Amino acid sequence: MANQSLPPTSVGATLLYRNLANKSTLFTPNVRELFLNTITLHYSRYLNKQNPNINTQLL
């Protein structure tokens, strides 16, 4: 994947997609975990670009 900063609207989209993935029956548990981990990784990268001092270990 390209290492690009995410737009500010991605914060809301991240929460929306996480919520949908948690409720969806389309995902098997393994796929759901991979999907959520990928979203969390990109959200952490976005936060780090906004504020390099933020502690993203809490996510």
Using only C-alpha atoms, the radius of gyration works out to 12 Å
Question: Looking at the structure, what is the overall shape?
Answer: elongated
Please trace the helix and strand order, writing H or E for each element.
Answer: HH
Helix content: 55-70%
Distance between the termini: 21 Å
| Average pLDDT level | 70
Structural class: mainly alpha
Number of domains: 1
Q: What is the oligomeric state here?
A: single chain
Q: Hey, roughly how much beta strand do the residues contain?
A: under 5%
Low-pLDDT windows of residues? none
- Quantity of strands, as a count: 0
- Largest sheet, if any? none
**SS field, number of helical segments:** 2
Jot down its keywords.
single chain, 59 residues, mainly alpha, 0% strand
Question: How would you describe this protein?
Answer:
It is a single chain. The chain is mainly alpha-helical. The protein has one domain (10-54). It is 63% helix and 0% strand. The chain has two helices and no strands. The chain has helices spanning 9-23, 29-50. The longest helix has 22 residues, at 29-50. The protein starts with 8 loop residues before the first helix and ends in a 9-residue tail after the last helix. The mean pLDDT is 70.
